[in-house]
Design brief:
This protein is an alpha+beta fold. It has helices spanning 6-11, 18-23, 103-107, 122-126, 144-163; strands spanning 41-44, 51-58, 61-68, 79-81, 88-90, 94-100, 111-117. The protein has one domain.
Amino acid sequence: MKPLTETEIRDSFVNCSKGEARRLNLPRGLAELPWEQLDFLGWRDQGAPDRGYLVAEHGGELVGVTLRVPSVRRSLRMSNVCSFCISTHAGSGVALLAARRAGVSGREGNTVGTYICADLACSLYVRGLKQSALVSRPEESLSQEQLIARTVTNLDAFLVKVLTDTAA
């Protein structure tokens, strides 16, 4: 991913108002992020633990999505799988994150949810730069390039759902 500016990030959001996008907390150390290792920019809001954000290139454009973490938590004793990168995590390492749909549908309260790495660091997990707390990670026969491509494909499928205005 190419490095993004604060303005590019704020202007990319499709499922919140411009005012909300201006007020959201950006990740700390934006300039120092490992941009070349990221397939998308994802972060949780330090000041509001029930919020997360992701920004990705989709269809030749930058698309930003606000995410919410429901108050209902999954069991900490179970292992869970991220639907983007297919990384397995113990306990709370995967969270159900919901995005309001773009357009009229989203303003009417329609959302799309999926289970994602709670820290939104999928790019680092598929590259082996970050390890989940799970002791035994299943081996996959895919190359790292294939793992990255699968992650991007899964992310794109999620973004299509967010961008589809079902009220139109």
